[in-house]
Amino acid sequence: MSVRRLAEASVQPASFAFSEENVAWAQHTIRKYPEGRQQSAVIPLLMRAQEQDGWVTKSAIEHVADMLDMPYIRVLEVATFYTQFQLKPVGTRAHVQVCGTTPCQLRGSEALMDVCRSKIHHDQFHTNADGTLSWEEVECLGACVNAPMVMVFKDTYEDLTPERLAEIIDLFEAGKGDQVTPGPQNGRFFAAPISGFTSLSDETNVLKETRDRQAKAAAGAGSAEPEVAPSNAGRPKTDAAETNPAIKSPSEAKAVPAAETAASVDAPKESKHEANKTSAAVEGEARQRKSPDTSDAEAKPSRKPGKKPV
After folding, report:
1. Residue where a domain terminates, one of 163, 184, 205
2. One domain for residues 101 and 175
3. 272: closest CA among 288, 250, 252?
C-alpha cells in the first residue's frame, strides 16, 4: 500500500463540526463503550465525519481527537491506515469504487474502469470538471458471484456491463442517483441464477411439509412420553459391552480392597535368559538367541578365554 497523506492545505476547510443530529449520534455511540475504552469509537466517528462532508479533513481528525481525548497523531494513524477513509476531496454526487480483484477482473472490471476514465477523469482520485464525480480502483467488495461490480458510497451495483455503468454515472451526474436500484443490474434476484432457481424450485411444498410436521410434533408434545430416558438419549447404539442398556452404571457395589489384591497379578521376575529367547509366534519356536551380550550361565561364550580375537 502506498503512503497516504492528508490533502494539501489549500483544499482543507478552516474548521469542522458535526451537525446537531450527528452530535447526538456521536455521543450515543461513545456511550456504547465501557469506561476508559471510549477511544474505541474513533473509527465510527471518523466514518460519520466522512459521510457528512464526503471526505476526512484535517479539521475532522482534530475534532474527533478532541471528542475522544486522544492525541491528534493517534487519530491520524487510524485515518491514514484504512483506505476506506478518503483523505482528499471526492465527487460530491458520486465516488465510484470499482472492484479490481480477480473475479471482477476476469468478468470485465477493466472495461468498467475505462468507462470511469472517459466519463469522470483519466486518473483515480481526481474529480471531474464540476467536482461532482470521482473514482478509484479498490480491492474485493464481497459480492464475487455478482462480478463485476462497483460501490457508490454505501450502495453496490453488481452484474454490470460498461453500458449500464455509463447509464448509472449519467444518472448520478444529473442528481438522480436515488433512482438507481442497488444490487444486480441484470434482473436476477440477489445471487440466484438469472434463469431462475435450479434447486428447491417448489418452495411452497417444501415449507408446507415442514410446517405440517412441526404442527404435529407440537400437538403431541404435551401428552406423549419420551421413548428414551433423557439420561440414555445420548448413548450410541453399538455391540460394545460399554453401551449395553442392561448394564447399570455407575455400579452400586462397593469395591473390596482384599478382592482387588487377590485378583492382581505379580509382575514376572526379570530374567535375561528368558528375555533373550526368540518369539515362538514369529520363529516357530522359542530358542536362545546367539548373542555376545548374553551373560547367563546357559549362554555359551562367543570365544575361548584368554584368546585374543583375530
Report:
1. 184
2. yes
3. 288
